[in-house]
Amino acid sequence: MHTLTTNGPLRLIQITDTHLLGPEDGRLLGMPTSQSLDCVLNSIRKQHPQFDAFLVTGDLTQDGSEKSYQHLHDVMSTFQRPAFWLRGNHDEPSAMSKVAQGTEHLQRVIRNEHWQIIMLNSQVEGAVFGELAGEELEFLDYTLTEAPDLHTLVCLHHHPVSMNCAWIDPIGLRNSHEFMQLLGRHDNVRGVAWGHVHQALEGVQDGIRLMATPSTCIQFEPNSDDFALDDQNPGYRWFELHADGKFDTGVERVKGVHFEVDHSQTGY
After folding, report:
1. Closest among 66, 71, 52 to 216, alpha carbons compared
2. CATH class of the domain at 11-253
3. pLDDT digit of tens for each residue in the chain (268 aa)?
4. Which of 131, 147, 157, 238 lies at a CB distance of 3.0 to 4.6 Å from 58, suitable for a disulfide?
């Protein structure tokens, strides 16, 4: 567990799906992912100079290389803020763990006086879809039960609800019904945030706010039947978590920079 000491709201920045590669000039469908991440981080510096921690919700790299994780660690360390990492379907656990050794990156529970953030591993090694293993659901249930007075934000990589996107929905969280049922048995869950879908979404289900966050690189076209890229710029999500359990959140995108992407591709 990692404890954050805060004055006022707990301020968090979620970035996701950075898809970094070993070579710093590496590209994903035409997008220079290291450059796009730098643009997102520069936007965060300007728009949110005061915040408490980063949540990095999976697909940190595209190639699973140790060098790509090291680059992510190095560029984010310039903020001098803790950064908590989750696995996505593209991540390589051993390389990720090696770079994270001796840091806070792989802490699963983050708490302050009023809130806790629970980081869940939905990776199924070798698969694109996600699933929460039995021990992961037990961990979630235990952590929610252990601190019933703490408002809770749950983070994972794969989407637990439909994105109304025919090609994306089958590669979401396979046991989403079980996950949502578990959350419904606890009255301290305020929100769920994820990545994977490279687009923004906000909704409410059974009183729990549900939030998808754009990638720091390529964006997927919402409501598409087949794989398609969107022309929106890379982005991130910010949170202000208040003592009474309410929270504010929003998505910001890079401004003033044009990125070329390869629309001819049918997957990645």
Report:
1. 71
2. alpha beta
3. 999 988 889 999 999 999 999 998 899 988 899 999 999 999 999 999 999 999 999 999 999 999 999 999 999 999 999 999 999 999 999 999 999 999 999 999 999 999 999 999 999 999 999 999 999 999 999 999 999 999 999 999 999 999 999 999 999 999 999 999 999 999 999 999 999 999 999 999 999 999 999 999 999 999 999 999 999 999 999 999 999 999 999 999 999 888 887 767 777 7
4. 157
Task: Check: CB of residue 261 under 8 Å from CB of residue 234.
Answer: no
**Residue 204 CB coordination number (10 Å):** 9
Helices 134-146 and 176-184 cross at an angle (nearest 10°) of 20
Residue 93's φ and ψ, nearest 5 degrees, are: -55, -40
Three-state helix/strand/coil letters over 80-123: CCCEEEECCCCCCHHHHHHHHCCCCCCCCEEECCCEEEEECCCE
Enumerate the domain spans of the chain: 11-253
